[in-house]
C-alpha cells in the first residue's frame, strides 16, 4: 500500500490505453475520466513519482481467496498498476479493472498487452462509474483507498456490483482504521474500511470470511511494510 498509508457502461471502458513515457501516460482532462479531478490528480501524482509504485505481483489474500472460485466476471476496484487484473485474466477470469489514476491504468494496460491478455479498463471513481448492477461473480477490492461519505456510497457501490451467488472480497491493512490522523494528511476517518461494509449487510448476504491474518505480501513495492490483513469475503445469496 502507499506511503501515505491510505489507504451499464458509464465510465470509459477500453482495453487500448496507450503506454509511453510517464508524461504521456497522464491523460488529458478530455480523456473521459468520470470522477473528482482532485482524486485523480492526487493518485496520478503519486504514481508519476515513481516508475513503479507496487510490487508487480498479485496480492496474497486475493490469490488465497480466489483459489476455490470458478472463474467468471470479476471487477478489480482500484486496480493500480494491474498486477491483480493481469493475474486474474491469466487465470481465465473476464476482468474489468477500475482505477482513478490514468498513470496507473496506462501501466496496467501495458502489462496486460505484454502478456497478451484482454482486460476492460474503466477510468473512473467507483461511485461515479455506471457499472452494470449485480453482474460480477467476484468484486475484488485490495487495499482500496475509497473515500468515505455520509451516504456510504462507496460501500454500497461495492455491494451493488456483485451478482447473485457472487462474492465481494475486500482486503485492507489491519489496524489502519484505528490509527490517529497523521500529519501527512492521512486520517482514517476519511476512508472506507471493511467493518463499514459489514454493517450494511442484510439477509441477502452471507459472511464467509471476516478475519485478521498475517499478510502474504509480494516482495517489494510501497506497501511492503504492512504485516497483517483484514480480509472480508461475503457472498450474495440472492
Ligand atoms: C493502495 S492502492 C492499491 C492498488 C492495488 N489494488 C494494489 O493492491 O496494488 C489504492 C488504489 O485505489 C485507487 N483509487 C483511489 N480512489 C479510488 C476510487 N474512488 N475509485 C477507484 N479507485 C480509486 C488509487 O488510485 C490506487 O491505485
TrEMBL record:
Region feature Disordered, mapped onto this chain: 1-35
One term of GO molecular function: methyltransferase activity
Keywords: Methyltransferase, S-adenosyl-L-methionine, Transferase
Pfam families membership: Methyltransf_25
InterPro entries documented for this protein: Methyltransf_25 (IPR041698), SAM-dependent_MTases_sf (IPR029063)
Keyword Ligase: no
Any GO BP: methylation
Domain Methyltransferase: 74-166
Keyword Ligase: no
PANTHER family: METHYLTRANSFERASE (PTHR43464), UBIQUINONE BIOSYNTHESIS O-METHYLTRANSFERASE, MITOCHONDRIAL (PTHR43464:SF19)
Name of this chain's protein: Methyltransferase
Organism of provenance: Streptomyces phaeofaciens
Source organism phylogeny: Bacteria, Bacillati, Actinomycetota, Actinomycetes, Kitasatosporales
Amino acid at each position: 500500500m502507499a506511503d501515505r498509508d491510505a489507504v451499464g457502461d458509464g465510465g470509459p471502458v477500453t482495453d487500448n490505453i496507450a503506454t509511453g513515457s510517464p508524461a504521456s501516460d497522464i491523460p488529458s482532462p478530455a480523456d473521459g475520466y468520470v470522477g473528482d479531478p482532485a482524486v485523480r490528480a492526487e493518485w496520478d501524482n503519486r504514481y508519476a513519482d515513481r516508475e513503479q509504485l507496487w510490487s508487480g505481483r498479485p496480492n496474497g489474500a486475493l490469490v488465497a481467496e480466489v483459489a476455490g472460485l470458478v472463474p467468471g466476471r470479476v471487477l478489480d476496484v482500484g486496480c493500480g498498476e494491474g498486477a491483480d487484473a493481469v493475474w486474474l485474466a491469466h487465470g481465465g477470469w473476464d476482468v474489468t479493472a477500475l482505477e482513478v489514476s490514468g498513470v496507473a491504468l496506462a501501466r496496467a494496460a501495458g502489462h496486460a498487452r505484454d502478456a497478451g491478455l484482454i482486460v476492460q479498463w474503466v477510468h473512473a471513481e467507483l461511485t461515479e462509474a455506471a457499472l452494470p448492477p449485480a453482474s460480477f461473480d467476484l468484486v475484488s477490492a485490495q487495499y482500496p483507498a475509497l473515500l468515505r461519505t455520509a451516504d456510504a456510497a462507496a460501500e454500497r457501490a461495492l455491494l451493488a456490483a456483485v451478482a447473485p451467488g457472487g462474492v465481494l472480497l475486500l482486503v485492507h491493512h489491519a489496524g489502519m482504521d484505528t490509527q490517529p490522523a497523521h500529519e501527512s494528511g492521512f486520517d482514517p476517518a476519511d476512508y472506507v474500511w471493511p467493518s463499514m461494509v459489514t454493517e450494511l449487510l442484510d439477509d441477502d448476504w452471507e459472511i464467509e470470511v471476516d478475519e485478521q491474518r498475517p499478510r502474504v505480501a509480494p516482495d517489494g513495492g510501497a506497501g511492503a511494510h504492512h504485516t497483517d490483513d483484514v480480509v472480508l469475503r461475503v457472498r450474495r445469496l440472492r
